Structure to design on (668 residues):
């Protein structure tokens, strides 16, 4: 059995600039895997290649046994891979509830239906309610999403991503810009929602990474220079030199 | 709860039934019939603009083509060349025509959103208008096509000879279509359509093809536009290139925008107001199109939510307690009075300018507000300039207090517990 997500020889160039320079990585089913690396290392680009936002220049991506390299973003999502965005990417004029509800609809089989009323879809509304409570936005469900505070919008971003119940979850800096207490809440939320699922997380906050991840990969200039358990990564001389520096926390 | 939700619909139906008994003149009947079908068209258009975020400059194509097909079909029925469809159901035929062209053209035009979509819609609008003028055998050029809607008795002896029967036909279809389009906003399709409007990229990552949603919205919208077009054909018994033209497309855009795109009732308000103004003012003033343009620009600049948006702004206040609206009364009426003075002054000036510059005018005297005004003497100019200037000054003076009154009221409403 191959892993949940397998990247083989993945490359991406924009013009002459090669941003991803041959990434091989296997994420095991059920693990929490973090990707760290300095700014501009290509972490978000890597996410965009996996989730189908744009196609790689070379290499393959497999979700379990399915080759998803050339599939469109919505097809990949339907196969059970979801992602969040580094820059909050929500439906600003719709209510918080509708934001999450939209995330559930396709996965629960309602697709493009124009003959059913959303208010009557028991499965959707139950799932939406449980996610809203999970992300702590139940009280604010009637507000337009664009009026939420930054931290609440980050929580909603996460809520939309997980609403469909996808098995493989890619989170892009979910705690960016949060205060210390908000980060703690976010981490426990992420831990809860990724229970029994496969999680890939890009994160700058090393506390979060070492707290959450089963394994860590270090991406530097488009290449993975090390993959291992948190303690292995901490001990790795190459990582120390290339990324963490001497004064790493 | 169900009764509460049904109330507006029952009230609407009652109003539609009662209206012709209140306004029973022939002019009023035709006016109300035309407004009824324009409401359907405007709501269909708002499925694109307000619900789906697609700005179309060519939606009259589906309205007009359905109209053309409908007059042809009526004529073919008359000549017994096609299966008989009762006139009562002919709007459905128009809807299917709209749907057909919506699916066809939509497949191409909804591949992209934003500016590209708008430009393609404009292109198709011009193209179809040109075709109606070129393909004389089918569209009969600038003359358009006549039809006779009276094809014999239908249920309950209805012949659609008298205008009142056509009014009720249109009112019935208007109600059904409005309800259908309202319910559509509450389906998975409707909600995802809103999501595509807000953020087409994100939609792709929750399993949806934004292109597919736009195509579906476009096709369904064309279906309702087609129903409106068929009703137009039945009401006027004539369809010409004006009905597919960019002017008609622009008019529906104006209606929807002035009424307000963000609420469901906006297009209903816009279609009613604009068509009422158009049909009453075109006889009174030559400058009607200019006023329409100024109104449109004014709404876009100062009330981007449209008229319905203005009403919706106050909803959180009366929801808590209607009495909280009372302090708004004085500042609002001050502002409104100032605005009216300013507008009346400007209208006077425009009318005099028009009168002086139009050489074709056969009238020898200009009557403004029931008073004979000589545009070649200084007196009226002085009065209207003064009214415009004083009005404009007063508008500037009274506007801040109107705004702050609203701010206070909304803060009051928020501070109170609901219920």
């Amino acid at each position: 059995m191959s892993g949940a997500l397998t990247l083989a020889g993945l490359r991406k160039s924009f013009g002459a600039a090669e941003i991803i320079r041959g990434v091989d990585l296997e994420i095991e089913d059920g693990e929490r895997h973090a990707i760290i690396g300095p700014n501009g290392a290509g972490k978000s680009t890597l996410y965009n290649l996996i989730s189908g936002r744009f196609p790689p220049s070379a290499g393959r991506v497999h979700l379990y046994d399915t080759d998803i390299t050339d599939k469109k973003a919505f097809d990949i999502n339907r196969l059970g891979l979801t992602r969040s965005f580094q820059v909050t990417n929500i439906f600003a004029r719709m209510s918080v509830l509708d934001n999450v509800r939209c995330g559930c609809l396709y996965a629960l089989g309602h697709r493009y239906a124009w003959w059913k009323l959303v208010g009557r879809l028991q499965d959707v509304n139950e799932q939406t309610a449980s996610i809203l409570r999970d992300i702590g936005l139940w009280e604010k469900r009637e507000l337009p999403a664009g009026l939420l505070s930054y931290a609440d919008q980050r929580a909603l971003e996460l809520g939309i991503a997980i609403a469909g119940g996808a098995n493989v979850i890619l989170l892009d800096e979910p705690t960016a810009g949060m205060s210390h207490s908000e980060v703690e809440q976010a981490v426990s939320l992420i831990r809860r929602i990724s229970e029994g699922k496969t999680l890939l997380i890009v994160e700058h906050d090393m506390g979060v990474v070492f707290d959450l991840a089963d394994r860590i990969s270090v991406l530097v200039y488009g290449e993975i220079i090390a993959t291992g358990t948190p303690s292995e990564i901490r001990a790795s001389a190459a990582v120390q030199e290339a990324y963490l520096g001497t004064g790493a926390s | 709860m169900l009764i509460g939700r049904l109330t507006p619909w029952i009230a609407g139906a009652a109003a539609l039934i009662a209206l012709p008994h209140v306004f029973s003149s022939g002019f009023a009947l035709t006016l109300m019939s035309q407004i009824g079908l324009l409401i359907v068209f405007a709501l269909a258009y708002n499925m694109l603009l307000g619900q789906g975020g697609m700005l179309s400059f060519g939606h009259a194509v589906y309205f007009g083509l359905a109209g053309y097909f409908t007059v042809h079909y009526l004529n073919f029925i008359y000549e017994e060349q096609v299966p008989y469809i009762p006139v009562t159901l002919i709007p459905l035929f128009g809807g299917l025509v709209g749907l057909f062209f919506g699916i066809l053209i939509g497949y191409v035009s909804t591949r992209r959103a934003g500016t590209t979509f708008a430009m393609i819609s404009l292109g198709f609008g011009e193209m179809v208008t040109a075709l109606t003028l070129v393909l004389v055998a089918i569209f009969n050029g600038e003359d358009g096509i006549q039809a006779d809607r009276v094809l014999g008795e239908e249920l309950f002896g209805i012949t659609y000879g008298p205008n009142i029967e056509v009014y009720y036909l249109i009112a019935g279809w208007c109600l059904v279509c409005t309800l259908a389009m309202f319910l559509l906003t509450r389906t998975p399709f409707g909600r995802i359509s809103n999501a595509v409007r807000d953020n087409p990229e994100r939609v792709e990552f929750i399993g949806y093809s934004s292109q597919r949603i736009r195509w579906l919205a476009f096709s369904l919208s064309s279906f309702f536009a087609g129903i409106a077009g068929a009703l137009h054909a039945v009401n006027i018994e004539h369809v010409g290139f004006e009905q597919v033209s960019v002017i008609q497309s622009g008019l529906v855009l104006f209606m929807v925008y002035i009424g307000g795109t963000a609420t469901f009732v906006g297009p209903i308000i816009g279609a009613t107001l604009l068509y009422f103004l158009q049909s009453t003012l075109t006889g009174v003033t030559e400058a009607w199109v200019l006023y329409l343009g100024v109104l449109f620009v004014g709404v876009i600049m100062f009330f981007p939510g449209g008229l319905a948006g203005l009403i919706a702004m106050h909803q959180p206040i009366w929801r808590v307690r209607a009495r909280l609206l009372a302090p708004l009364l004085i500042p609002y009426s001050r502002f409104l009075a100032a605005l009216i003075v300013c507008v009346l002054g400007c209208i006077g000036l425009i009318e005099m300018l028009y009168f002086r510059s139009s050489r074709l005018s056969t009238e020898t005297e200009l009557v403004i507000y029931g008073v004979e005004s000589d545009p070649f003497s200084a007196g009226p100019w002085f009065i209207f300039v003064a009214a415009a200037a004083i009005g404009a000054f007063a508008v500037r003076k009274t506007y801040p207090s109107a705004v702050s009154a609203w701010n206070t009221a909304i803060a009051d409403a928020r501070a109170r517990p609901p219920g």
User: Anything to note?
Assistant: Residues 150-163 of chain A form the longest helix (14 residues). Chain A has one domain: 31-52+70-244.
